[in-house]
Amino acid sequence: xxxxxxxxxxxxxxxxxxxxxxxxxxxxxxxxxxxxxxxxxxxxxxxxxxxxxxxxxxxxxxxxxxxxxxxxxxxxxxxxxxxxxxxxxxxxxxxxxxxxxxxxxxxxxxxxxxxxxxxxxxxxxxxxxxxxxxxxxxxxxxxxxxxxxxxxxxxxxxxxxxxxxxxxxxxxxxxxxxxxxxxxxxxx
Length: 188
Description:
Layout: E1 18-20, E2 28-30, E3 42-46, E4 51-52, E5 59-60, E6 65-69, E7 74-75, E8 81-82, E9 88-100, E10 108-117, E11 120-128, E12 137-147, E13 154-162, E14 167-170, E15 180-187
Antiparallel strand pairs: 1-2, 3-6, 3-15, 4-14, 5-13, 7-8, 8-13, 9-12, 9-14, 9-15, 10-11, 10-13
């Protein structure tokens, strides 16, 4: 076995991929640029403060506190949506922590977490507590979504159906679980 030592390997001028290997063996094709960042663009954001919502109504979650946003594609101030400008498949995840303003007397019957793509339901999780209402509820959903890289976007919605008090989406806090929304690219 021989050993190759070098400081730089580069593509031929006018090409974008570097292939290592021969036609007789498996090949490894490197994308243009560094290998770091293969799961980019990516973002994660969370709800910065309590959001009071209408009972039993699908409501956009005002995710306003960015943890990270690698390519500045998440709107945390107006539309609360993510519009990646790189086409591909993305893993999109979301969670909502549901509560009411009644404190220990909270009675949550049903909760939903919904990822909307381009204004329509794409992925949804639902929990029912009708025979045994709960004080708080935490629910997650996720999906692999194909984005065109120009106009496709995602938003997070929730629905909190209570039988007393005002429904609330709770922010991240000492629970280490809270209301958050994120995505990262997994491939072309």
